[in-house]
Design goal:
Strand order of the largest sheet: 20-21-22-29-24-27
CATH topology of the largest domain: Spore Coat Polysaccharide Biosynthesis Protein SpsA, Chain A
Number of helices: 11
CATH superfamily of the largest domain: Spore Coat Polysaccharide Biosynthesis Protein SpsA, Chain A
Helix content: 10-25%
CATH architecture of the largest domain: Alpha-Beta Complex
Shape: globular
Structural class: alpha/beta
Number of strands: 30
Length: 480
């Protein structure tokens, strides 16, 4: 047990295009249900749900705030704070904002910086490694965590140590240097040499140590982020960083800004099961295969297949593989990917090509999450759109109107309190409400069960930006 709790900082940016089509801009990798019916973000929160850790601090973007709120509620966890970045600026500004935020209350508090999109299966062993590294971090070192490599991986950076025997050490070791992602020959040499670990992008240090490092190694970045934190305001339980200072900050990773320049570095070896789940090949590696090394997710069947991943995210959709060898098949409700496993890391280029073709599937799935629940587009045609909408218990849509569309609401289940103009009434399952063009309206769920409804929009323009908000419990007035 450490003397004071360690403060986890969970970073929730990025889109994870190499896990397309399950991961997209409106459904980033860390929030997709990749493992065991939970998201990687939820796994990260549970990873540090123990006596040695304070409630986690989450750093995320404006577009991801809905996901964070909903997924924390779904696993009944309360964050220490949720910090909202005005714009994506990579990991260096995000980590500094968290350190400055924590340093306002306790400069000597320890921060554990965690990506939200990694998979650490050996939870107890990881917690023990963090606690074992705490004394070194309290003494003023920056401790980075290194994973014992199990193959000559070219997709990860590496950490070099002095002594090959140190790979199995139970305490932090001296770090010689960071090594960028190698080619195949260099990766095999480092695996054989025994002095290198995979760089997990996990760090432990005091807020004071980290702030001091930025002041000496990245002074311009420090000034910009400090201004942003000073301008921060609290709304609806969210800490909104100041935009003026934030936009002056360079977009740079913490590795490049700090770690490759610092001299007070140590590495904590970790030999437990870990994966960054960065592409579908790594998801296949992390899964539990059948007798022919096939990993199946959802209603998936295979016949005469070897070493393949076959996955469907759609509850009523069956996917069948026949005579597949080392293949990936991933089906969602609006896209299907079929590719060799060896081509997994080329998906980022494929997504960029889809963007150039202006295909909406590149970035948006049909389901969008909001702080009140979610909606899914069932059909979109000229002049009308059909949505399924689910409003979580005791949540509410904003009080709003539209300039270009009218709406028909059919309540399928639950009881909704519906405002249209000056009329307010409760509507049970089977009920119907018409919202005329321009009418101010709102739906509230005052019950303990979700409200499910079908919404049919009819109008000349059906975009989500045709919303004028007058009141909103999630501080979205003037926001999308």
């Amino acid at each position: 047990m450490t003397l004071a709790p360690i403060h986890p900082v969970i970073l929730c940016g990025g889109a994870g295009t190499r896990l397309w089509p399950a991961s997209r801009r409106n459904q980033p990798k860390q929030f997709a249900l990749i493992i065991d019916g939970l998201s990687l973000f939820q796994h990260a929160v549970r990873l540090v749900d123990a006596a040695d850790f304070a409630a986690p601090m989450v750093v995320t973007g404006v577009d991801q705030r809905f996901w964070v709120i909903e997924q924390l509620a779904r696993i009944e966890r309360t964050p220490g704070s949720i910090i909202i970045e005005p714009d994506a600026r990579n990991t260096a500004p995000a980590v500094l904002a968290a350190a400055l935020h924590l340093a306002q209350h306790d400069p000597d508090a320890l921060l554990l910086v965690l990506p939200s999109d990694h998979r650490i299966a050996d939870v107890a062993a990881f917690r023990e490694a963090v606690v074992a590294a705490a004394s070194r971090a309290s003494a003023g070192d920056i401790v980075t965590f290194g994973i014992r490599p199990v193959r000559a991986e070219t997709g990860y950076g590496y950490l070099e140590m002095m002594d090959p025997a140190a790979r199995d050490a139970a305490l932090p070791q001296t770090l010689v240097r960071f090594v960028e992602k190698p080619d195949a020959v260099r990766a095999q040499a480092m695996l054989d040499g025994g002095r290198h670990l995979w760089n997990a992008g996990i760090f432990l240090m005091s807020a004071r140590t980290l702030v001091t490092a930025y002041q000496s190694l990245a002074a311009d970045l420090y000034d910009a982020v400090q201004d942003s934190v000073a301008e921060a305001r609290l709304e609806a339980g969210l800490t909104l960083l100041g935009k003026r200072g934030w936009l002056k900050a360079s977009s740079i990773s913490i590795d490049f800004a700090i770690m490759e320049k610092a001299h007070n570095l140590a590495v904590m070896p970790f030999s437990g099961r870990w994966s960054d789940l960065g592409d579908w090949d790594s998801v296949w590696r992390d899964g539990d295969g059948d007798g022919n090394d096939n990993v199946l997710v959802g209603d998936a069947l295979v016949f005469n297949c070897q070493g393949s991943l076959v996955r469907t995210d759609v509850p009523d959709q069956m996917v069948v593989g026949l005579d597949l060898d080392q293949m990936i098949v991933v089906a969602t409700n609006d896209a299907v990917l079929v590719a060799p496993r060896a081509s997994s890391q080329q998906l980022s280029k494929l997504v960029n090509d889809l963007r150039k073709m202006e295909r909406p599937q590149a970035d948006r799935s049909r389901r969008d999450h909001r702080p009140w629940g979610w909606y899914e587009s069932v059909a979109v045609r000229d002049g009308f759109q059909v949505k399924q909408i689910v409003v979580s218990p005791h949540q509410a849509l904003s009080l709003q109107s539209h300039n270009h569309r009218a709406e028909h609401w059919i309540i399928l289940s639950g009881t909704a309190r519906i405002t249209v103009g000056n009329s307010v009434h409760d509507v049970d399952g089977g009920g119907y409400v018409f919202v005329p063009l321009g009418a101010i309206h709102r739906l509230e769920n005052l019950c303990d069960e979700p409200v499910t409804m079908v919404e049919v929009q009819i109008g000349s323009y059906l975009g989500e930006d045709d919303i004028i908000r007058y009141a909103d419990r999630y501080s979205r007035v003037g926001m999308s």
